Amino acid sequence: MPATIDVVEMFKQAALEVDNRKLPQLSRETVIATLGMDSVAIMELVSYFEEKLSVRIPDEELGRIRTVGDLRDTIARLLPPGTQVAA
Fold first, then answer.
1. Distance between CA atoms of residues 4 and 23, nearest Å
2. Which residue among 36, 48, 52, 62 has its CA within the 20 to 30 Å range from the CA of 79?
C-alpha cells in the first residue's frame, strides 16, 4: 500500500478500470452523481476501493457519500490509525 493514499487519483484509476471512463478534471468537490456512471459502475468503484485498501465501507456510510471528498473522508475514517490520506 502506498505511504499516502490519494483518493482522487485512485478514483480516476478506478473509473478507468471499472467504467473505461477518463476523468482528468476530477477533484474533491466533484459530485459523484454528475459523472454519469450507473449504479453497477458505482458499486464496482466501491469494491475497487475496498479491495485495494482492505476496508469495508458500510452501506449506511455509502448513502452519505456525495462527492469525491466525502469518499475520501469516509475512507480516512476506516483505514488503520496513522495511515496517510492525501487532502
1. 21
2. 36
pLDDT tens for each residue of 30-65: 999 999 999 999 999 999 999 999 999 999 999 999
Confidence of residue 2 (pLDDT cuts 50, 70, 90): low
Is a pLDDT exceeding 60 seen at residue 69? yes
CB 11 within 8 A of CB 23: yes
When divided into structural domains, the chain yields a total of: 1
CATH number of the structural domain spanning residue 12: 1.10.1200.10
Q: Rounded to whole angstroms, how far apart are CA atoms 67 and 30?
A: 5
